[in-house]
Amino acid sequence: AAKHAGGDDRHWFDAAMDRAADDDARLAAELRRAPAEGQLVALYQPIVTLPGGAPTGAEVLLRWQHPEHGLLAPDTFIPLAESNGFIVELGDWVLREAVRQSMEWRDRLGDRAPERISVNVSARQLSDPHFVDRVAGLLLESGLPPHRLMLEVTETAVLSAGAAIAQLHKLKALGLRIALDDFGTGHSSLSLLLDCPVDVLKVDKSFVSGTTAGRAGAIIVRNLIGFTQDFGIEAVAEGVETTGQAAQLYEAGYRFAQGYLFGRPMSAPALEELLTAPAEPGYRAVHAGAGRG
Ligand code: C2E
Ligand code: MG
Ligand code: MG
Ligand code: MG
């Protein structure tokens, strides 16, 4: 009987796997059409200065407005796009949209526009031999000053993409800024920083508010800031959710932060409202929390 049941399970399992493969294939086909169908959405999350919490930049975070499944988060489709190579087209859409929005804000808002827009770049894009040329072309045709665009790459992407470090040097030579994202979660050593032309270290949210928060997180957060200061790199703390965390980060030496405390990923008009508002509640809360003028 046990053997028979096992046989049935096997059959059930294979059928489930087939269904999952069908679902993936359908989702992949839909994703391929998503840019043309106008289903991609760029959200913007503010990057702020401490202790005040004033927005200084924004990170573009991609969403997919799926006709049946609703607004999908990147973890439901980015891995799929990476595995079938379609991330290159998605990434181009994101870059183009970021540059367009950035120019629009620059023209319309003047010095209230975000100083810098950050775009996430995956390993597959970085190893695309035409990536640097496309970015250069985009900058040229839009007229966006290169230093207003920051590319975020993870340590894992840098280590897995062929010629990634050489590509980063070329991007850096164009005048772009480079950030190492989710820092501390990969398996690289700090020496990666010496090989990469890094301007900004984004300290992963697991050390600030997540799984490694608490004493261990606090130690890592404190040590990384010293390290960045010694190397002349800016540090951004990710995942700041409470005024207490913001105050501690400021105390430790952090001058830039990002997290739900200051703003969730939001539509471009919502970010614009935040940029042009005289003062918002998060500002005073953080200011008071940091106990400084
Ligand atoms: P990431 O680049 O590290 O982006 C930060 C993620 O942390 C975002 O998740 C953001 O919503 C979330 N986050 C920000 N503040 C907080 C906070 O205070 N608490 C918590 N718990 N989370 C916070 P999201 O938007 O789901 O994006 C997840 C990841 O997907 C990104 O991580 C990035 O690796 C990838 N991604 C997003 N957009 C793109 C894109 O256009 N291209 C590529 N290649 N990857 C993208
Ligand atoms: Mg990022
Ligand atoms: Mg990150
Ligand atoms: Mg991440």
From TrEMBL:
Domain of life, per lineage: Bacteria
Positions of the EAL domain: 24-279
Record's protein name: Bifunctional diguanylate cyclase/phosphodiesterase
Lineage, uppermost ranks: Bacteria, Bacillati, Actinomycetota, Actinomycetes, Micromonosporales
